[in-house]
Amino acid sequence: MTTQISELIKTWTLRISLATALIVALLSWFNGVRSFDLVIRTGLSFGILYLLFSSILMAYQKTSLPEPQLEQTSPPPERGGVIDFSVGDEVPSTDSDESLFPGQVDPSLSIGLEDSKRKADIVRRMGWE
Q1: Burial of 17 (0-12, 13-18, 19+ CB in 10 A)
Q2: Nearest Cα to Cα of residue 89 among 99, 75, 78
Q3: pLDDT tens-digit profile, the chain (129 residues)
Q4: Does the CA dihedral 42-48-49-50 come out positive or negative?
Q5: Residues 5-24: pLDDT tens digits?
Q6: Which of 1, 21, 29, 79 reaches 20 to 30 Å from 13, CA-CA?
């Protein structure tokens, strides 16, 4: 766990413990508890909650898996650099950025749907007889 997150959790642990101690003090005061008992109850409620939250955080930090280190990788491949061609066509050159069709869309579809001979040729090349 990073130190920034750990410090944030410790801050919230303190805030929650103080808020709970304040609530205990107010409720005890409304119920007419003596001053000495009020201080004892408030101190105990704060101490118990703070120790509980702190021990849970410490146990989590000791038993959690370490965060994976990010490795420097090569930049992502350029558009059309991986497998980006239609079935049955030759591999396009990577020099041209003129293609307006991302992914594996056949640029010849821009002029309309293919005829049945072209479809049959594609199916045959896929091995579907």
Answers
A1: buried
A2: 99
A3: 577 888 888 999 999 999 999 999 999 999 988 989 999 999 999 999 999 999 998 998 888 887 777 776 666 656 655 554 555 555 555 555 555 556 666 666 666 666 777 777 777 777 766
A4: positive
A5: 888 889 999 999 999 999 99
A6: 29
- Residue pair 113/129 in contact (Cβ under 8 Å)? The answer is no
The values of phi and psi at residue 18, to 5°, are: -65, -40
Q: Name every residue whose Cβ is closer than 8 Å to that of residue 43 and which is 6 or more positions away in sequence.
A: 21
Supply φ then ψ for residue 59, to 5 degrees.
-65, -40
Pick from 115, 109, 120, 117: nearest CA to 86: 109
The whole-model pTM stands at 0.49
Q: Tell me: the pLDDT tens digits for 55-72?
A: 998 998 888 887 777 776
Q: Of 15, 16, 44, whose CA–CA distance to 28 is shortest?
A: 44
- For 120, the token pair is 């049959």
**Cα Rg for the chain, rounded, in angstroms?**
34
